[in-house]
Amino acid sequence: MPHLDPYFKEVDGLQGKFIDRLKSAVAIPSISSEDERRTDVVKMGEWLAEQIRAVGGTVELRQLGKQPGREHLDLPPVLLGRYGNDPNKKTILLYGHYDVQPAQKSDGWATDPFTLTMDDKGRMFGRGSTDDKGPVLGWINAIEAHQKAGVEVPVNLIMCFEGMEENGSEGLDNLIEEEAKKFFKDADVICISDNYWLGTEKPCLTYGVRGCNYYSIEVSGPGQDLHSGVYGGMTHEPMTDLIKIMGSFVDPDGKILIKGIDDLVAPLTDEEAALYPPIAFTMNDLHESLGSEVSIYDNKDDSLKHKMRYPSLSLHGIEGAFYTPGAKTVIPAKVIGKFSIRTVPNMEIDAVTQLVEKHVNEEFARLRSKNKMKFNVVHCGKWWVEDFNHPNYTAAAKAVERVYGVKPDMTREGGSIPVTLTFQAQLGKNVLLLPMGSSTDAAHSINEKLDKRNYIEGTKLLGAYLHYVAGELVHPSK
Amino acid sequence: MPHLDPYFKEVDGLQGKFIDRLKSAVAIPSISSEDERRTDVVKMGEWLAEQIRAVGGTVELRQLGKQPGREHLDLPPVLLGRYGNDPNKKTILLYGHYDVQPAQKSDGWATDPFTLTMDDKGRMFGRGSTDDKGPVLGWINAIEAHQKAGVEVPVNLIMCFEGMEENGSEGLDNLIEEEAKKFFKDADVICISDNYWLGTEKPCLTYGVRGCNYYSIEVSGPGQDLHSGVYGGMTHEPMTDLIKIMGSFVDPDGKILIKGIDDLVAPLTDEEAALYPPIAFTMNDLHESLGSEVSIYDNKDDSLKHKMRYPSLSLHGIEGAFYTPGAKTVIPAKVIGKFSIRTVPNMEIDAVTQLVEKHVNEEFARLRSKNKMKFNVVHCGKWWVEDFNHPNYTAAAKAVERVYGVKPDMTREGGSIPVTLTFQAQLGKNVLLLPMGSSTDAAHSINEKLDKRNYIEGTKLLGAYLHYVAGELVHPSK
């Protein structure tokens, strides 16, 4: 059993510095989906590179050129880092992202989203705190604590931290393909900390994620917005058409109404069904993280299956319509509906898109409207499933037990992390998801947070994992 | 026939000053539906009062107290003005409004919405240029040109200019009721310039307007916005419910699907049907003002009937959902759908609201969702129809023929002007709508404009009307 106590002690001792590090990261509004924030995304990448160099790592900020379809924008650089280069050590590839979802105080945040703010319960609120700046900094914290403790990092580390994860990871797949046999060639396994525990107390290891096909529908007609009193009744209104189409996708109970989608879903096997009952998760956990009791199913197992291994369809919003408070009597001239489908085995991206496009075209044709409709694929990321009997997982399970004193749940994640698939396909190495945050962290929402406990114990976990995986890769215990 | 040439000559001579006056008015962003613009609405009222005093009128800015339901806001004052007080003259009550619809350059305006900008075709672009600052200033221009020409204004004028027309005319009805037998008691007839010609060449007199019932539906469930990957499939999503309800109101061809609404509509009589064929309006006019050919009907008469004497339902937008460009994988926690119904004889406000609320409640119940739904009445204004054989209309028709050389179309308007009804009911006097702008002015839209011709000839028209109505009220010609 690795001698980790001196390392753990240093992590505790350095926690103030680690929290300041996260505060500095959250202060940079690196929103990858907003043009005017692109410079902040780049700034964040450069700041992160400095942090890695400061602990003795080497870093290249790899430029990816213009953003496809939005050539006025440069893609943010991918941070390619290395720590340690000992041919006698195994090498772990770490992935994370330094960009964040959009956030404005006016969305309803209790505190400024870009000022990390800790409350008396040790909850650290701020955009990116848990998704994914906290976990990324966790690796740097782990290296620093090893050095301070005089404990050698038992593996070589290769880092791949991107700045477009919240916006389709544009350009990353090409880079991974190019570097698979070069910069990434020494990687024995891959570890990604970019998801969440199922509940708030018990850690988990994640061996699968859903994919995401994100679409938009643009309906346009009038040359400009119109007065609904002057033109209402004589004009085909784009909103009427769009709302009809958007209303045809899914039932309130989550059932997807697009013909053929269900046929693509792999049937639930008895072996797989048996995985769910042991998972430590309650409807109370779910209701707490929802902030209400609007769950579709009344039991834990069905809820988890529909989060982990069945598809879902969400309507995100409409661009171009009236969206502020107050009453505007307008007929919007052009509206763009946004929606996405979470995909699971065996739904192929293009097969899903063909069914969705066919459905949208048929629904619009039924309306016999004179407006114009355009269906767009915004971005797609495939689902991923991994072998959880691999030493990579055995090591992580032991690290969890060492730090938290419990065996982790083995889970699949609802949110897509497309890069898992690319690493698996291009490097042919085992990929592990080792989450730091908990189910109440509200990633992508207002008041996103990371608990201090998850950040500090999580830093211990990431460090401990490096020791156990070094051992398991040489002498597997199963 | 009144001797008007000297007056007309002065209007032409003063046109530069009149355009500068409109420029100054447009520069004040008096948006009544946005809290943070309320001070600008008040500022606009004070500026307008100064303009009237400068031509010798007397003005009171009548305070109306707090805005009901939004008590942190004071209602903008109603401008009560007087010009002339000769017991031997007839008295005309003028109504208009000095507030405007929301506007931002980013909505797609070609020019700054609050900088009046004239192009080489004499189109003066700016929010409020045609709705309703241009027409209101037309009355002041007319008084000034009379004075400069040494022609006596043949009637007394009472002015009622409000600052909440675009936001439900809050507080105005009470004021009119209170002042009916006081400040407004001398009024012989009422004239309102706050609508538009049907086309671009031929003026019209308007004897009816549709009403407007504006509603919102709030659907909420989760305690905060959620990550669609983490929670999609296990949660009742407010957007799914709202879109289903909003999709149940109206067909793309404009047919309202709310049970019982059609039964409230007065049947079309033969006499009424005969009014439509003579109207100078073509499908080309409609398509030009639409900026496209997305008209529901292929002929002028049906198009006009559905604009003037049949109801319509428009979906305006959704508050609380994702509305910016880009891709956000969010499940919005609370969304508010906005829609309105344009009403016609004999649809009573409360009867319509009861049918709509019943429909909304039934649709939501059918969804069997665990989310909460709240139906809200935002504001309602009733339809209005007037006797167009009254001297008030005869006078206006003669003024149109004098200034433009054509007989006006007799029309009913699509957009609601609730105050017409209040004046009719409280004062028991004939109300005339005498529009200045044309059908291509794009009120409530981006690139709202008023043609220089309509502004200057329109100022002549308003002045000429005062002379003809003075005569007709004493010796009716029919």
Query: Helicity range of the residues of chain A?
Result: 25-40%
Counting H and I runs of at least 4 residues, what is the number of helices of chain A? 14
* Poorly predicted runs of chain A: none
What would you call the shape of chain A?
globular
Largest interface: A-B, 101 and 101 residues
Rg of chain A, nearest Å = 23 Å
Oligomer: homodimer
E-strand count of chain A: 20
* CATH fold naming of the largest domain in chain A: Aminopeptidase
Instruction: Write out the CATH superfamily name of the largest domain in chain A.
Output: Zn peptidases
Q: Just name the CATH architecture of the largest domain in chain A.
A: 3-Layer(aba) Sandwich
Compute the average pLDDT of chain A: 95
Site (Important for catalytic activity) (chains A, B): 227
Protein name (chains A, B): CNDP dipeptidase
Binding site for Mn(2+) 2 (chains A, B): 97, 131, 194
Keywords (chains A, B): Hydrolase, Manganese, Metal-binding, Metalloprotease, Protease
